[in-house]
């Protein structure tokens, strides 16, 4: 019998000053810097019941995390996949609701939704800061678990699997069939953090018949960013701007945490496109949000997009985003942004950006939301 999640390997504690101790320290530092990876060796049948007793709304389980296999079938991936669905306070199945699809980050899976996202989200709905909406979080991890040692799918169709098709042809129709979703495409939004933010922007441009808006935090919006000297880890300068043509470097550092821990280009590229693939640049270009502006001929007023980002982002997303915004402005496209000069690529900065996301979403969802009474809790 297959299980939905497996435990990530854990670093064992060794005597002081050994290499294992240093590896443990660096792993802990990385967990602080990035969205935390969690995996589930044993089912937790009571966890969701306890969680729902604390919420004003309710989380519906379509996972294998809580004692029973309730996963949805994905024809695109050829396997069952986990999905959580949040129903807002005062939910009435006879009314129609906006739909928000939350796309998690690189090191996570759907469990981040109930661990880190659901409590602040539930409070936002309970206070009335956002009109009632259905929020869903699918599992976009490679193997159905979150772990520091596996690659990120970026919700792409790639060598890792057809994860874009999973969202568009499996998750989206499932939600529209089984939940009272307002059919207007402007009532359908994408929320994304980091890897999920880049996917949210890409899907918004590629599927305008399904999604009307996207709110993103730390999104990678120019995967080919380099300056005119071929450097990646520098600020964007419109007078010194190049395009990466070579993704074959196995040593190039694209992120650095605490000045010590590094993330190299090969960790992101090779699992998706293969090693020494001559078509890597062309494949990346086809799904690169900044290049999609031109390739899809995105017009002014067509892209309803919010971007929150940080000046000290360890992945230098600021340069990627600034170049995207520069090209969007050239095309007459307005993108609402919030920039935190001292922020980093971490959960703390994401929470600081959350109020801006909520303010931006509120007037866009309100015309499509029912008038639901608040929860008595």
What does this structure look like?
Helix content is 33%, strand content 18%. By secondary structure, the chain is an alpha/beta fold. It has one domain (19-223, 304-368): Rossmann fold. The strands form five sheets. The chain has an eight-stranded mixed β-sheet, sandwiched between helices. The model is unreliable at 1-42 (pLDDT under 50).
Key features?
single chain; 377 residues; alpha/beta; Rossmann fold; eight-stranded mixed β-sheet; two-stranded antiparallel ribbon; 16 strands; 33% helix; globular; disordered N terminus
* Total domains: 1
Q: How much helix, percentage-wise, in residues?
A: 25-40%
Helix-strand makeup class: alpha/beta
- CATH top level class name: Alpha Beta
Protein topology:
Layout: H1 19-33, H2 47-54, E1 58-62, E2 72-74, E3 79-81, E4 83-87, E5 99-103, H3 111-127, E6 134-138, E7 157-158, E8 161-162, H4 163-178, E9 188-193, H5 195-206, E10 213-217, E11 225-227, E12 241-243, E13 253-257, E14 261-264, H6 265-273, H7 280-286, H8 289-295, E15 305-310, H9 317-330, E16 336-340, H10 347-365
Parallel strand pairs: 5-6, 5-9, 9-10, 10-15, 15-16
Antiparallel strand pairs: 1-4, 2-3, 4-6, 7-8, 11-12, 13-14
